[in-house]
Design goal:
Elements: H1 10-26, H2 31-35, H3 49-82, H4 88-91, H5 103-132, E1 143-150, E2 153-163, E3 167-172, E4 174-178, E5 183-189, E6 194-198, E7 202-207, E8 213-217, E9 223-229, E10 241-247, H6 249-260, H7 272-277, H8 295-298, H9 300-306, H10 316-328, E11 359-360, E12 365-366, H11 369-377, H12 379-382, H13 387-394, H14 402-414
Parallel strand pairs: 1-5, 4-10
Antiparallel strand pairs: 1-2, 2-3, 5-8, 6-7, 6-9, 9-10, 11-12
Bound molecules: dinuclear copper ion (CUA).
Amino acid sequence: MRPFPFLVKPATFGRSCAAVLGAFAVSGCSWQSWLGLNGKQSTFDVQGPVARVQLHLFYITCWVTFLIFLIVAGVLAYATIRFKSRSAADEHAEPPPQGHGNPLVEMSLIGGTVLALVIIAVPTLKAILFTYDVPIADKADAYEVTATGYQWWFKFEYPGEQIAGAGTLTTANELVIPAGRPIHINLRSMDVMHSFWVPKLAGKVDMIPNRPNFLWLKADEPGYFWGQCAEFCGESHAVMRFRVIALEPREFNDWLAQQRQPARSVAGAAPFGEAKARLASLRAFGENESGVSGNFEVAPLDAWRAKQFPEKGEDPALISEGRRFFAEKTCISCHTIRGVPGALGVAGPELTHVGARSSIAGGLLDNTPEQIQRWIHNPELVKPGNKMWVTGYLVNHIQLTPEDEAALAAFLESLK
Ligand code: CUA
């Protein structure tokens, strides 16, 4: 008799375990979310009604299929053990009498299957109806925004906020919403298919060129949420991210009022020559080096709030020089900054209040002068294939010295 009569060989078992653990490792689950299920983009740590209904449906489906697994595996294990050949005589024994169907077993299997499908189908249909659009009773309270996917960043517009002479209030890469209110989000795409996904607030919905789409979500409480494009959309799909910041209604209104203002202007106090002497050169960043600090891991909402105010020790001379370069180096042909003459471009993200955002480059890097400088120094190294590099820098022959970069970074950071 073999030492493991009913089990696989230890070596095979070890290899299977290694394969399962390896699959976890390469699936991108962080250890935190794998064990604690509360990672930054965990669908288990739901913070709003839409995601909650979807998680509930996931659990129902899991439990039903787990029960089916237990029954099938139990019957299989029973048959395997009960009817295993135990001697040489068993191996040459006549097969047992063969039947041709058992009405009771067959009807039970059909009935059981239908029951399992019904148990899954009823909550599925209810969830589809609930998650499709803002419930009728809450429609009047719904706040509307429009999200547009670009390769590889998100534009956010607030149709309810019209600014005289400038049109709809527009931001990029960070969607600020009122907490506790249903948000109806129109989904658009400017180029290829993208998908809008804030795991803690709602499941993903595709953004399809020439096909208006929408979803709704609600954040129970004020919070800071990580989002991600969830549809392969080209070489930098994996770094097409965004953030959602949910604020108390009053704080949200203050934010709106601030966003309606034109860009902050900082008058240069000292001649640029003096500022230039103080410039630190850019340290070398490695390829794929993370641009995210611990700031947004511990208290992300507080870190975001801190970004709403001018930085300590900002350099007016450097900032006003950066403002000049922004026009001179043709940045204005792709970016809008309300308040900077000629800055009306719409090919790239709106930058009027970029300094008040917590991230840049499509939610990829923390918004610090160092990371801005890293980004504008060579965008291609951060986000391969992006248009700022190819149609911006290469076509327009944009060349920046470290001083230009530092001044531009100081200017962009000053835009609160
Ligand atoms: Cu956009 Cu993937």
